[in-house]
Amino acid sequence: MNRLVAFRTSIVAAAALVLSACGINSVPAAEETAKAKWADVEAAFQERANLVPNLEQIVMSSAEQERETLESVIQARASATRPEIQLDGDDLGDADKMAQYQEAQNTFGGALSRLMANVEAYPELRSQENFGRFMTQIEGQENRIRVAIRDYNEAVRQYNTTIRTFPDTIGANIIHGAEPMVPYAAVTEGAEVAPTLNMRGDDDAAN
């Protein structure tokens, strides 16, 4: 009887090991990691969008010439944050939805960069305390966006490798029906990298 119990225990343990090796646990774990990293990407972009009202107050109060450029930023922000282009975890395998989201974010980032480049021409703006504070915030946020995208792409790479590699691919295809996820790649060359904003002026940059 003891031998039978021991035999059955060993069979159960072996079966559990085989199932584990076939992606039963590793595939969903890798998937959840990638989804969590995507949430970080969306949060980073949203935090950048949340800074625009601060910039709006600065420009409207001191640089009437740039209000048209500011309007393009506001419009691009509205487009980049509209609910219908946001991606949840189940959309990460849809290349078209990812491209749409990326394009909106790139358009917003480009408009923001152009406005900041124009605003640099106004010494009275650059000397304002609130402008300096905004400059620090936006530069920090652009860096957080870059880090979040990098971490998401690495999580996607690991997930896509897991579902395609034996023996995890057995569980991925037969049990989970897993599909590859789409990395945050550029719509145009270099667009996957958040723009670097030079808001300190040429003299400060040289120092």
From TrEMBL:
Protein name: LemA family protein
Family named by the database record: Belongs to the LemA family.
The UniProt record lists the keyword Transmembrane helix: yes
InterPro entries, A to Z: LemA-like_dom_sf, MamQ_LemA
Localization in the cell: Membrane
Major location (coarse): membrane
SUPFAM superfamilies (alphabetical): LemA-like
GO cellular component: membrane
PROSITE patterns named among the record's database cross-references: PROKAR_LIPOPROTEIN (PS51257)
